[in-house]
Predict the structure.
Amino acid sequence: MDFSLYFKSRQGEIVHLLKNIVGRESPSQDKKAVDACSAFVVGEFKKTGAKITRFPQKKIGDLHFVEFPGSPKSPADGRILILTHIDTVWPVGKIDKMPFYISGDKVYGPGVLDMKAGLVEAIFALKALHQLSLRPARKIAVFINSAEETGHDVSREIIARLARSSGLVLCLEPALPGGALKTQRKGRLVIRLEVKGKAAHAGTPEKGVNAIEELVGQLHRLKRLATAGVTISVDLVGGGEKANVVAETAWAVMDMRFWSSAQKDKIVGAFKHLKPARPGAKFKFDIESLTPPMEKTKASVQLFQQAKKIAAAMEISLAEGRTGGGSDASIASSLGVATLDGLGPDGDGIHADNEHLLLPSLVQRTALLTELLRQL
């Protein structure tokens, strides 16, 4: 079966579905909007004959698990887990100023690349297998995250549980520019550092302990952790009460990225061993968010080689690369499960007003995903 030709002949249907999903705006923080978009997407998955499990949520959009049957001899623990997310960074109403449209071979719109196109790929791949009566060797499952952009403990826990019982994981995040897959991703730590000092009149500052000054000094020292491959960005700060009172409290929130778990441990260790420069100052830090790095593993290297071979037979050249951004694929990879990321289409402008994908890439990636599901 030549899936490249098969999906090229269905390009109009693919674009129509993508337009419908993009038009249903779904910012992470708007549960009502996310659930409405999910209801539409789940309805499309039902057309493939898949079984749908809903995980109701109170604060975030409901999570969904799609199960597509494999052959009767499919191993119970050998399924393919596909990771997707339905939420975007764009608020409701953005589509009025950033409409869905096509210019040449580029498709524009909020969330079109990150990652509603990935959902379209998964839907059409399963539809093809269903309509053509092609039973894959493995069972296939699709997890639809409703809070990937913001992160949430519940979705992380479900992804980890599903990954542990899967043979391999494919993530449909966008490809690297040029179409390369992502076999390495940086991990991310968001840490809040709080400093407690002592208030005093600003005219006699020596009677107090200035928490803001202590915080500034510590942030400069922590910047030394930014060695090769490690970045530290101080993005939120606050403290003090009045201009004529020595600040009793101060805080900062930092975003740190790293390539390895060893680098992460070094960062956390530095926070644990912070020592005040001013007598009487005290520290407290909390890890607000942690995404593990997607490190290159033997299992993932072997999976990439398999995918590369399958792609070559389709006259598709697959390359690999790495990126500083995080994704749900990192959760699966950190558990030792063979994982490939970046199987979504090529494009540009993620989280920017010029977000777009390359239409030929979307058609090609849908064909490749279908073939991977059939052969892996």
Notes: The domain at 3-186+293-375 is CATH 3.40.630.10 (Aminopeptidase). Residues 112-131 form the longest helix (20 residues).
